[in-house]
Amino acid sequence: MAAALVNVPAKARRGAVIEIKTLMSHVMEPGYRHTAAGEVVPRDIITSFTCRFNGAEIFRADLYPAIAANPFLSFFTTASESGKFEFEWIGDNGFVATASAAITVE
Amino acid sequence: MDSMFEPLHLSRRHLLQLAGTFASALPLITVRPARATPAMLASAIRNVVGEAHVQAGKVRLDIPPLVENGNTVPMTVSVDHPMTPESFVKSIHVFNEKNPQPNVANFFLAPSAGRAQVTARIRLADTQKVVAIAKLSDGSFWSATVDVIVTLAACTEEMP
């Protein structure tokens, strides 16, 4: 159900600054909307995103209801060595999703 | 039966109905404010920066000045500061003035980022100010503020 889309360059020169783009499918229901009957639609959002490279955290984000549905995040990192990026999204109602991407640094 | 459709009769009934609806709707309004206020924005910023002084500059906040659909607004925050282990941007915090909540997102960076720049898509419930604050490794805070005009608000529409 949870579909992640991650864009990391497969190869990079050592020391190059690369951009990482992530997209996660999620409704990000803010918890402020009402149904036609007047009931509040309960909040259901992703609250935290973490990116680790070879086990070390390189980027983290706290998300709030003000983040649009299907959260898109892009950020940068320096390619220092070959390895694996791991991405983790954590949210309301026990939502957990992960993704990973490998990079070859030469 | 015809008397039911007399204007006076109708309006009195409507008035009573209206009064009823209004009375039942009133507690809903008083439970919580529908949107963040500038005071909530200020206190949300205080929570992050504490007593530190926030200087304007260094931070660049790119948001279209006129937004048609507040449900998804592209936003890029970049900080004009080198990313070295000795001196780097520790975190970037984004706030808004008039959404139901003053916080938008907090981003935590590592010195290895190489470039202090983050892009996300956000929601804006009204024409308002958006504030980005960067915390540097030396403990100083820098900020940028942008006014955004929103024609279609997020968060307020009914569920189908």
Automatic annotation (TrEMBL), chain A:
Coiled coil: none annotated. Residues 9-101 form the Sulphur oxidation protein SoxZ domain. InterPro entries: Ig-like_fold, Ig_E-set, SoxZ, SoxZ_dom. Pfam families: SoxZ. Signal peptide: none annotated. This is Thiosulfate oxidation carrier complex protein SoxZ. The gene is soxZ.
TrEMBL record, chain B:
Pfam families: SoxY. It comes from the Bacteria. Residues 46-155 form the Ig-like SoxY domain. Transmembrane segments: none annotated. InterPro entries: Desulfoferrodoxin_Fe-bd_dom_sf (IPR036073), SoxY (IPR032711), SoxY_para_1 (IPR030997), SoxY_sf (IPR038162), Sulphur_oxidation_SoxY (IPR016568), TAT_signal (IPR006311). This is SoxY-related AACIE arm protein. It comes from Bradyrhizobium aeschynomenes.
